[in-house]
Design goal:
mainly alpha, 4 helices
Length: 67
């Protein structure tokens, strides 16, 4: 299973700052949270997990190699 580009998942440019990454994550997390999307909870949960994984990697300097 190939992972998508985390920047693409969050809808941001590769040169984005930590603030832009956080802002994009928070907006998408609110939009796709399973509790908010009760009609389509399974798809929302999958999207929310993907968004959370992208944020976890991009916000961690050790995982992105930006030490």
């Amino acid at each position: 299973m190939n992972k998508r580009d985390y920047y693409e998942v969050l809808g941001i440019d590769k040169g984005s700052t930590k603030d832009n990454i956080k802002r994009a994550y928070r907006g998408l997390a609110k939009e796709h949270h399973p509790d908010v999307n009760r009609d389509n909870q399974k798809d929302a949960e999958e999207k929310f997990k993907e968004i959370s994984e992208a944020y976890a990697v991009l916000s961690d300097d050790q995982k992105t190699g930006k030490i």
